[in-house]
Amino acid sequence: MTANVKIAPSILSADFSRLGEEVKAVDEAGADWIHIDVMDGHFVPNLTFGPPVIKCIRPWTEKLFDVHLMIDPAQPYLEDYAKAGADQIVVHAEADKHLDRSIQVIKGLGKKAGVSLNPHTPESVLEYVIDQLDLILVMSVNPGFGGQSFIPSALDKIKRIKDMVGDRDIEIQVDGGVNKDTAKSVVDAGATCLVAGSAVFKGDDYVATINAIKDAYS
Ligand code: DX5
Ligand code: ZN
User: Where are the beta strands (DSSP E) in the chain?
Assistant: First the structure.
């Protein structure tokens, strides 16, 4: 089971002046997916980048582009992210009055669809959309910044979501404060994909860091 746990480095903590090379480096270091944090300075108190930057880094890897949209609204821009090279588009339940429609739009664009929950958001919001999902993202920090500490209540939420998911083919992703010290507890709780930003990019040796995270739960 743990052999299938995916590592998705978040390029939020990468060197933005060399983003393409950074994406290639984590690809070669063993990343399963590339996690791309899009922030709008409105839904979250930080700004990052949008579709043109994603389009520029697309040629640097063939790994899945996992696009985490921390933007409100997301729905008007879903097609732009799909065209820029996203393989999977994750929207926040809190930023969407019409979550079911957004999921349908993402699927209609031929992309995988995910829903993300802030630390305070109960998993019950997933109840009527869960059958359409490819991924559920459990935020284990308040979104907006890399390098924050893991919020322990996320563990209980992961366990509850694992029960909700049952035998459905849905990834349970955890994002925020994941490193070699917290990885085992999130995998034990039921996570199948770990996002790691600062833990990977703030180290000098991406191979060693990714391996250390994998070793922590294997
Ligand atoms: C936070 C982002 C995360 C962030 C995680 O809003 O969604 O993906 O990059 O960073 P770390 O791993 O440093 O907590
Ligand atoms: Zn993220």
Answer: 6-9, 33-39, 64-70, 88-92, 112-117, 135-139, 171-175, 193-196
Tens digits of residue pLDDT in 60-103: 999 999 999 999 999 999 999 999 999 999 999 999 999 999 99
> How many folded domains does the chain comprise?
1
| Any ligand 1 atom below 6 A from CB of 147 | yes
Q: How many CB atoms lie within 10 A of CB 55?
A: 14
- Tokens 């391996």, located at residue: 211
- So which residues are the catalytic ones? 37, 175
Distance (Å, rounded) from C-alpha 145 to C-alpha 106? 25
Q: Which residue in the block uniquely carries the two structure tokens 């998993």? A: 123
Which residue segment(s) compose the domain that 172 sits in? 2-217
C-alpha 35 to ligand 2 mean position (Å): 6
pLDDT 10s digits, 118-148: 999 999 999 999 999 999 999 999 999 999 9
Give the CATH number, domain containing residue 82: 3.20.20.70
CA torsion sign for 127, 130, 132, 136 is positive
Render pLDDT for 13-43 as a digit per residue (tens, 0 to 9): 999 999 999 999 999 999 999 999 999 999 9
